[in-house]
Amino acid sequence: MVSQNGRKRIVILGGGFGGSYLAKALTKRSPGLDADVVIIDRNNYFIFYPLLVEAGCGSIELRHCTVPIREFAPKAELLMAEVAALDTERQRVHFQLVGDDQCRAIEYDHLVVALGSVTRIMPASVVSGVREHAFFVKRMSDAVMIRDRAVELLELANAIDDPEERKRLLHFVIVGGNVTGIEVVGELEVFVREASAQYHNISDEDITFTIYEFNQRLLAVMPENLSRWATRQLARRGVGIHTGAGVKEVHADHVVDSDGNVVPCSTVIWTAGITPNPVLKQLEGLPLNKFGGLQCQGDYLAVGTDNIWGMGDCASVPGPDGKPMPPLAQIAIRQAPQLAANIAAVEQGRPTTPGGVTLQGVLVPLGRHRGVAAIKGIRIHGFFAWAMWRAIYLLKTPRLSRRISVLADWLLNAFFRKDYTQLGMNPDSHREMIHSHASCEADEG
Ligand SMILES: Cc1cc2nc3c(=O)[nH]c(=O)nc-3n(C[C@H](O)[C@H](O)[C@H](O)COP(=O)(O)OP(=O)(O)OC[C@H]3O[C@@H](n4cnc5c(N)ncnc54)[C@H](O)[C@@H]3O)c2cc1C
Which side of the chain, N or C, has fewer Cβ within a 10 Å radius? Predict the structure, then answer.
């Protein structure tokens, strides 16, 4: 694909938080650029991640945690395609449109790599069985699968007679006790307990949640007093908390923890860290660091290049303190206008400026109208922290219509029981759940 009008073309790989906000910034009047902006993403939406867990657990309608890219950045062109390869010599990206098996190419004057991250999965020699048996929290389908799994388990546990097996089925293990893991425990525990009220054979004691965290405390990104408060809250709700401990084997019906204990359970949710998108390794000519991230200068330019830029979770960009900026949506969003200004500066023959986005704060919802928040030196916990989390993310949700939909979902949920129907996204779970039972045929025999 060649530019039709002789204008410069900026190609953005990945239309997530970083890529979409950048496209919006580049197509505004302020950077003073007159260029075509093209986003390549495998989806025509991006996920508003802070609401993903709520969407998965039914607190908001699933679609309401997504943002349609075409509406968000209407002046940019979107190619719904899988990024396949890069030719830096000829300044070309190769891609495959979704639903088509032909490989196509597009030329660029500037290339921005904003392909995000994936869940970090340890090699099988360190922790085995994760890929085969664990659930993740990254895609829309992940969130729905966890919810469907919980409903399926409640149905099965309600129908069987063996009390020990019922407890195993309803034991949820979360590996990784940082922000995402804690959000999952907070929301899912409420979802499962509230749903269980509809099942006559399931009591509160049958349901267990356990967190494993390698650090010595949960929520290592939060100040210590807030982390302690959150830990006490979760412990009071009966959540089993193992800090300074991990899991070394994941099986369909149990885990083996780092002390060698065999722990019966049927669902393991893996939230133990992220790593830059491995597709970067496929894109020849990119300077990658030892973690597989795009190594950039402070002005977002990839090291050793003059027209390739990086941002968001997949890029290592030094902040004002020299350390890489953290992989967070709030960082990617604020990187966007700085990067747009730097691309404009190069085009206009001006020097670029180092970015420098720092963390504004961290907010974590714990479920049951509780949360913890540390923002610009202010530390709060309890109801106000939870309300602040909701208010801030509601305001940050792009588009007024989405904001109203999310608010309506929350209000409806405050007055009515959640919907516990399955969405049919978990075709494999039945096989795993009944792993410890004999097959129907064998039972009869
Ligand atoms: C459950 C969860 C909760 C979170 N909560 C918060 C929070 O409360 N606050 C906060 O600040 N941050 C939060 N984050 C982190 C935040 O979501 C990320 O830091 C942010 O999304 C990074 O933006 P990005 O543009 O780098 O990547 P992404 O937003 O992930 O975008 C990457 C894009 O690249 C596309 N893509 C990837 N590979 C290809 C390919 N081969 N071809 C085509 N397209 C491709 C993807 O479809 C995606 O749209 C959370 C993350 C998760 C998983």
Answer: C
